[in-house]
Amino acid sequence: MTDMTNGERAVTGARTDWDTAAASFDDEPDHGLRDPEVRGAWASRLRSWLPERASDVLDLGCGTGSLSLLAAEQGHRVTGVDLSPAMVDLARAKLAGRDAVFLVGDAAAPPVGEERFDVVLVRHVLWTLPDPARVLRHWAGLLRPGGRLVLVEGVWGTVSTVGIPADRLTGLLAPIAGHVRVERLSDDELLWGKSVDDERYAVVARI
User: Fold this and answer.
1) DSSP character for 64?
2) What is the pLDDT of residues 41-91, one digit of tens each?
3) Where in the numbering of this chain does the Methyltransferase type domain appear (predicted)?
């Protein structure tokens, strides 16, 4: 997906659409992370967002598992959830032999039972959901004490924008998070494989 189709497909993306998109999903530089510099940029950011010790990471809307793979390479145990069976199949293949499990399910209500995690990692998913405040509360409930939400979001488009601005997201987090840090990502071309002029950011919220 490109920057704008990222938003459009997320809004209109029925399961069959994501299954169809799965084969070419990794063609985008920030999805497949095939370029060593792009991969290195994401690995560096992720290392700063995740705990230093080996932790249990829940990657929601994991797609083909590119961020899951980086987290696993950094020593974390990963559970990935995606609505698309085709995406999940690709993620399982990508992380074969790693300490990782992938499940087909809804990111808003992941099928993880009573399991608890140290990190809930979500990229470009929250803004597509109809009740983000409720979803954030649910995600916070999946964390162990002292856990953190790592949310990569943005606002895309010029004529008709889609997304969630950073100030709105931090406002939604205020009732449930003890500490919220916003990291602006738009100026880091290596993350996206090109120059971008829309709002892209990460929020790390300690619960």
Assistant:
1) T
2) 999 999 999 999 999 999 999 999 999 999 999 999 999 999 999 999 999
3) 58-151
